[in-house]
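Please, structure for the following, as tokens.
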Amino acid sequence: MNIIVLIKQVPDTETKVRITADKRGIETNDIKWVINPYDEFAIEEGLKTKERLKEGLVSVVTVGPDRTVEALRTAVAMGADNAIHVKTESVLDTYLVAKALAEVCKKENANIIFTGKQAIDDDQAATFGYVAELLQFPSASVVVKCDISPDKSKATVEQEGDGGAKNVIETSLPAVLAVNKGINTPRYASLPGIMKAKKKEIKTYTLTDLGLGAENSKTIDSDYQLPPERAAGKKLQGDASAQAKELVRLLREEAKVI
């Protein structure tokens, strides 16, 4: 069984974001890059699926510049069998990234594709759906449980719904499953895994190799802005009655929510 895990390298959550002079992106110098946290759950689910089935290969795939190889080697250190890098120095939109990922999944004859439900940098939660549509595979998101049938023809997945509800659906395979936090606890890379990852050969494609050399992004980022600084909070004085009256006044006259 070919288990594919789609991952993205993102800035660490403690990164201090600085916008470029042309306002079309962020400064990437001195950023600490990490695997998107939701994708760590996807890697673990891919590894657990292989262990439960007692067969198969887990391959991790990413799109990006040379630095993204570090994310692939981290996934190999966790236990992935293969790593595939779609190398591009250009900034691609979600559509073109998804097309590249879909082409790799075709080449690898994917039986099941795991990825995180969203990336913490752009927060679009769209790539899994694009990939599924391009491959004409069924898909499910916010997945917190996945069971593969004995004949490996279908999967029963549990999704988180609003208000703590859980939805259980059955899908045929191959399928794209976007996992959520809580589906598992990602393992740490072992020392043997780290040593293996250092020597692992990374399969590399370019957009041209995938037949996408003439493709262009459908969208262009522009006018990035940092959110405005929050105003200082107010501390209400007086007894409870006075505080309540003042709070109502502020909500009505300043916040204008009542």
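The longest strand covers residues 139-148. The two ends are 58 Å apart (CA to CA).
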